[in-house]
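Entry for the shared binder. Reason: the reviewer on the internal report wants the predicted structure included alongside the sequence.
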Amino acid sequence: MFNFSFDKRIIYIIIAIMVLSMVVQYITSPGLLISLLISVPGVLIAITFHEFAHAFVADKLGDDTARREGRLSLNPLDHLDPIGTVLLLFAGFGWGKPVHVDPRNYTRKISMDKCEALVSIAGPVMNFLLAIIFSIIYYGIWKFTGMQFIETTVGNVVMILITATISINVGLGLFNLIPLPPLDGSKVIMPFLPYNAKTWFRNNEYIFYIVFVVLWITGLASYIISPAIGAVGGWISSLGAAIWGL
């Protein structure tokens, strides 16, 4: 995601309440803390590669803004947004630090809207590719090491970490494809909208920000994408298994 601009003060309050609630749950259920720790590597990988993909594609399309700001990097510290990272850890969806772009620098070989769509979809596509890669690794380990390794403490931890990484990447990719500002999906659909619809969308963008906040605060966003996460995650798992003939 590369454009997150509405007032974050309300979100900070919500995040604080969410974190306090989670702390209480950790006190009563230590297993949740273990689950949180297990998800950390997957979150770092998902956000870092997601934002790097935005920066990389923008750079290839002629805009060097991300390069000048040091975002063509695979260092997680260059891409983590405190709010988005906390959400991804606690809620299963979130975002990274915005990748700034200047559409005026894009190549004129294709329209500005198409360039923005390509930059926007690069992040989710990267997450899906990572999910596929880790699924292949998961079933590769299963095929070549068998239960003898998987049933060991190290093997069990490795498989759990890989599974969490797959799930987080699928969740981040799908969440950001929701066609509401400030998510990537709002830019991806732009080239496909009629001129009048496109103009209305841009002039009334604040309405969609409000809808997004409502969906997020009420938890409806999770209900919307959970079936898709299950379906896409299942397909990716089947693909990983099929590659190894499992």
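Summary line for the report: Residues 1-6 have pLDDT under 50 and may be disordered.
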